[in-house]
Design brief:
eight-stranded mixed sheet; alpha+beta; disordered N terminus; four-stranded antiparallel sheet
Length: 629
């Protein structure tokens, strides 16, 4: 009898343990979902543009769940929502006469961006472009605010031409036909001449001076091999200030004499740095000052250059955080607006007073439930590749990383992109769960000079794949990683590196997350945007003449070696890396019984811009890595 009672008690206790365990797991899962969701909801503000009187700023923010146009008083205060569309807006530009805001919007998040204008009060929305499947890119306004510079592939799917859009007539005028991508960088006040930026192959562009009436072009950056150039007219419009890496590795700041339109002078370098390259610059309205943004191994530095006296006014202005961009001057030149962000700071707009050189934060992206002070900043580390090449990476150590533990290698897109210490909700969510992040800049990354960014072209890409192994060896040899708990993730070209890593090194990497990645160069070239395919043949290989090379570089032909659980995320409207790339991976892994999860977002393109989708993707990725690491 007593034995029977004891059995009943044991059964009850065992049942209680099961209930408590299940409840604890459910509570823990709910806690993770809540924490990750709050992290993924953190907003951003970018693309600042001053009103002509300098009293108001237009910008883009996703604070209502989708990137839209807002405006705010330059003194601060509550912003006003200007647009309320169903699709994400990429950028905004206030017209010099104050009448219009121009912006680009991608239906369904795809690459077929369309260009619109709207009144600053949100009324009178007008579509300037055709509204079809063509790709359009928004440029600057002419000085009178009557026309917009833009580019489009409406004439030919394999090329993007430069146009002027007449706002009053609602007509587009073709100014320059291009092979590759052609776009206007600047135009003279009388609209007689424009600077045309033409990219015929990734990694090499040229600037041309073009007569807008006749279409006659004069090259002003003639060069051989790779080269990067961008420019803006001086106040007299007799010089063009440029960023240039002609006959040098790093991009420097210089100018070109164009007094003789058919016979421009050579590039004269004004400011150069041995440890950094020029990322961007902007002239004030009367072209007396230039704001120079420098890229120093991924961090930014700001200097101001006096164009009248040819000297740097302030060698280094302390930025509020690691990364700055989107620079623009107020019309009177007294204020400079910038997008500023960092690993522990979401992207916001700051104002620099050009007299005191003091910063003031203008926008405050929401981060409800997240104390930014608790976020983890990375350290920049150096290591060697298999062939002795020096590589760098950003190492985010979780607070529990005092001994070898789980880590994820995160690869940026591009491949000409760069891993930088910017805010990443997925990084911080993973770090909060005790998983460290190592985000390297392998060969082919930008920001480290002309030579480095071209080290993975064509056949050299095999060395880029070997860099994955070097990254794994680094995190193991330094005692950061548990060799049995190493993951890999990345988007776009980073997704390519994910699948290459899982296929080439199946015994070294335990789990993967492939976000809209290329896996088959044959299907990529056949299905991507024709203009994208046309400019990518030197970077990857020519499908007409190097078919075997592209086949050997495609992870899909080695996917049978992948044994790691893999989550695949993609946007149904992605025309850059079409969804067929994801489907090939998922089909193979499922057929072989490899754990795979496939998430297809029907309302996204190349990347996930809607807050609800960011929450879903981030939560899914974090849970996947928790499960397998």
């Amino acid at each position: 009898m007593f034995n029977e009672i004891n059995k009943n008690y044991r059964f009850i206790i065992f049942a209680l343990i099961l209930v408590l365990t299940a409840t604890t797991k459910a509570n823990k899962k709910d806690s993770i979902e809540t924490a990750v969701g709050m992290m993924a909801k953190i907003g951003s503000c970018w693309s600042p543009s001053f009103s002509p009187d300098g009293k108001t700023l237009a910008f883009i923010s996703n604070m209502n769940g989708l990137p839209q146009i807002w405006k705010v008083s330059i003194e601060g205060g509550w912003p006003t929502l200007i647009t309320s569309t169903d699709d994400p807006i990429g950028s905004v530009e206030w017209s010099p006469n104050g009448d219009w805001l121009s912006f680009s919007m991608a239906p369904g998040g795809g690459m077929n961006q369309q260009i619109y204008i709207i009144r600053p009060d949100g009324s009178d929305l007008k579509l300037l472009t055709d509204g079809g499947n063509e790709t359009n890119r928004l440029g600057n306004w002419t000085s009178d605010g009557e026309k917009l510079m833009m580019s489009s592939n409406r004439r030919l799917s394999t090329a993007m031409d430069a146009y002027l859009a007449d706002i009053n007539k609602m007509k587009l005028k073709l100014i320059s036909k291009s092979k590759g991508i052609g776009s206007f960088s600047d135009i003279t006040s009388d609209e007689k001449y424009a600077i045309l930026n033409r990219l015929e192959s990734r990694g090499s562009n040229d600037l041309f001076l073009i007569d807008t009436k006749t279409g006659h072009e004069t090259i002003i950056t003639d060069h051989k091999g790779p080269g990067t150039f961008f420019g803006q007219f001086s106040s007299s419009e007799k010089e063009i200030y440029v960023g240039s890496n002609l006959n040098r590795d790093f991009i420097a700041f210089g100018k070109i004499n164009v007094r003789k339109k058919d016979n421009p002078g050579a590039i004269k370098i004004l400011v150069e740095r041995s440890n950094a390259e020029l990322a961007n610059f902007k002239l004030n309205d009367d072209a007396t000052l230039a704001a120079l943004i420098w890229n120093v191994s991924g961090r930014n530095e700001l200097t101001i250059y006096d164009l009248k006296n040819n000297r740097v006014i302030n060698k280094k202005i302390n930025l509020p955080s690691e990364i700055a961009g989107g620079i623009t001057f107020s019309k009177d030149g007294k204020l400079l607006a910038l997008e500023v962000s960092g690993a522990t700071n979401p992207r916001d707009i700051w104002i620099l007073n050009m007299e005191s050189y003091e910063f003031r934060q203008l926008t405050f992206s929401p981060h409800a439930g997240v104390d930014l002070k608790t976020l983890i900043a990375p350290e920049l580390v150096e290591f060697l590749a298999h062939d002795g090449l020096k590589l760098t990476g950003w190492l985010y150590k979780s607070r529990s990383s005092n001994k070898p533990g789980p880590i994820i290698l995160s690869f940026h897109g591009g491949p000409e992109g760069q891993e930088r210490p910017r805010f990443r909700s997925d990084y911080q969510a993973l770090l909060a769960q005790g998983i460290s992040i190592f985000a390297p800049n392998v060969r082919g990354s930008s920001g480290f000079g002309k030579n480095f960014v071209n080290l993975d072209n064509g056949e050299l890409r095999f060395n880029g794949i070997k860099d994955i192994k070097s990254c794994v060896e680094y995190v193991i040899d330094t005692g950061i990683a548990d060799p049995q708990r190493i993951g890999i993730m990345g988007g776009s070209y980073g997704g390519y590196m994910v699948m290459a890593g899982l296929a080439y090194y199946p015994d070294m990497i335990n789990v993967g997350a492939n976000l809209f990645g290329v896996v088959n160069f044959e299907t990529f070239f056949a299905n991507t945007e024709p203009w994208m395919a046309a400019i990518s043949t030197i970077e990857y290989g020519d499908p007409k003449t190097q078919r075997e090379l592209l086949k050997s570089l495609s992870p899909i032909h080695m996917v049978d070696k992948v044994i790691a659980p893999t989550i695949v995320l993609h946007g149904a409207n992605d025309t850059n890396v079409p969804v067929v790339e994801a489907e090939q991976v998922v089909e193979n892994l499922r057929a072989r019984g490899i754990p795979v999860e496939y998430i297809l977002f029907p309302d996204e393109g190349h990347g996930f811009r809607k807050t609800k989708n960011r929450i879903h993707s981030t939560t899914s990725i974090v849970n996947w890595f928790i499960k397998y690491l």
